[in-house]
Specification:
5 strands; single chain; five-stranded mixed sheet; globular
Length: 501
């Protein structure tokens, strides 16, 4: 009992620290990790809020192939903020991230509590710590994205299964509803849910009655989702069918790039940074071999297989699995029977293991700090926020090189949510095209470019001759240097803002 009380106190302390840490991460993670997080959620909501039109949206809007549940949430949140006269777009986006952080903390806390009984006593404290503070988790969990919210719903579903309340009345109705929400947030979560249903049927062997309750509840949530989509698009639509038709049958997804079938096997090792990735892959393999009936195996394997078959692949498609990594690490490594192996090692071997453990701690700590206190992605929206804060309503001419404008970073659909009426956007292909004819006598002349543009010394002369001086980097130099050791970071994409004094 004393040990259990100590563990609960430890968890409460970690949770309190996590609250503070996640709030700071939500604040500093300005911008968006992937374009879909912004263009297909916040910009979509703008169509309903009246701040932009259908013609100013990504192509998925007219195709009605994206779920509307998150744009609907944005619509409600922004309407409430309007009542309190909160109009600053960066504050609004921060509140969305803060909502994500609150949801993540609540779900992770519940998950840890329910999972502790499954964890060996020796691994419980490490499990609690990495469930909140594995280096990539805070940065992922504060994102108001389909991947993050779907993953959190699925984590909640796993928590309910591990809890003692599963057999209580109506709990399978709750479970079905949560799986339905996971699907509404991200359709691909259906492959996680199918694995979970298979585990419930063939391993847990739940009754037919409970399975029917679960399915009926899930279907009810899907119908609710169809109603939201139909309200949002203004006509009856089944978005998950439209998504499947466009992305898979018509194979539009492949136009955005295709990867080899074992792409995800590589990224599982590479994306978390290889020391942690190798251990994660090894732990999952141990779990697969020694505990094939584990629910995580039943859910993750079909998810990976289906995603490996689909030609278009991205690392972010794995993000719904991110919060399962701590469980995989602890459960998988426990199967190795560490103590028995360690007894066979001499002192030198134990020293090597200790050094490796310390290296992992350092790697995790650096990644945790660097990625939790940096703007999201390459920090493009940090540049636009700086312009808004420093130049307010002053007329600005923003000259930008290719793929550098924070207001139109993909040179197709502008970010209406962040655009400002006082900023005039002028595009040049490279820094070599910069000349005094582009400058305005009546406006503040600003220049933004990617760091890769600085590699051409001939072009750099243009900066010096025109008197441009550096004002702001999208990611601070000290943070960028820390991040360079991690595959997530692309230094050449960091944006630099210049002005003429």
């Amino acid at each position: 009992m004393t040990f259990l009380n100590d563990m609960l106190k430890f968890h409460r302390s970690v949770f309190f620290i996590a609250i503070i840490f996640y709030c700071f991460t939500a604040y500093y993670s300005n911008g968006y990790y992937h374009a879909d997080e912004h263009y297909q959620i916040i910009e979509f909501a703008g169509a309903k809020l009246g701040t932009n039109t259908a013609n100013e949206q990504a192509w998925e809007f007219k195709a009605m192939s994206r779920q509307a549940i998150q744009p609907a949430i944005v619509y409600v949140v922004f309407r409430v903020l309007d009542v309190f006269q909160i109009s600053d777009p960066y504050t609004k986006a921060f509140i969305l991230r803060l909502l994500s952080a609150i949801l993540a903390l609540a779900v992770i806390q519940f998950f840890v509590k329910t999972m502790l009984a499954e964890i060996d006593d020796r691994f419980r404290k490490p499990f609690i710590l990495i469930s909140y503070f594995l280096w990539f988790l805070p940065a992922i969990n504060v994102r108001f994205s389909s991947e993050s919210w779907s993953g959190l719903m699925f984590l909640l579903a796993i928590s309910i299964i591990y809890s003692k309340n599963l057999n209580q009345k109506n709990m399978f109705l709750v479970l079905g509803g949560i799986l339905g929400l996971a699907f509404l947030f991200r359709f691909q979560s259906v492959f996680l849910s199918l694995g979970l249903l298979g585990w419930l049927l063939f391993v847990r062997k739940i009754s037919l009655k409970n399975m029917i309750h679960l399915l009926l509840s899930g279907i009810a949530v899907l119908i609710f989702g169809i109603l939201i989509d139909s309200w949002f698009y203004g006509k009856f639509v089944i978005t998950f069918w439209e998504y499947f038709n466009k992305q898979i049958i018509e194979d539009i997804a492949s136009e955005f790039g295709i990867e080899i079938w074992y792409y995800y096997l590589k990224e599982i090792i590479k994306a978390p940074f290889w020391p942690i990735g190798v251990i994660t892959a090894f732990a999952f393999l141990m779990l697969l071999i020694k505990a094939p009936r584990n629910i995580l195996i039943w859910c993750i394997v079909p998810f990976l297989i289906v995603h490996s078959i689909i030609p278009h692949k991205e690392v972010r498609f794995l993000l719904p699995l991110a919060n399962l990594v701590p469980s995989i690490l602890v459960l998988g490594l426990h199967k190795v029977e560490c103590n028995r192996i360690m007894k066979r090692f001499n002192r030198i071997s134990k020293t090597v293991v200790l050094v490796f453990a310390m290296m992992l701690f350092i790697v995790n700590s650096i990644g945790l700090v660097a990625f939790s206190f940096k703007p999201s992605g390459n920090g493009k929206m940090e540049i636009s926020r700086y312009i808004a804060d420093e130049f307010d309503d002053k007329p600005v001419r923003l000259i930008h090189c290719s793929w550098s404008s924070p207001y139109n970073p993909f040179e197709s659909v502008p970010t209406k949510f962040y655009q400002r009426d006082n900023v005039e956007d002028i595009r040049i292909l490279t820094l070599c095209q910069l000349n005094d004819s582009l400058l305005s006598d009546s406006k503040e002349n600003l220049l933004v470019l990617r760091q890769i543009e600085l590699k051409n010394p001939k072009c750099l002369m243009n900066l010096q001759q025109l008197g441009f001086v550096e004002r702001k980097r999208s990611i601070p130099v000290r943070i960028e240097k820390l991040c360079r050791f991690y595959p997530e970071m692309k230094p050449e994409e960091v944006l630099i803002l210049y002005s003429i004094p």
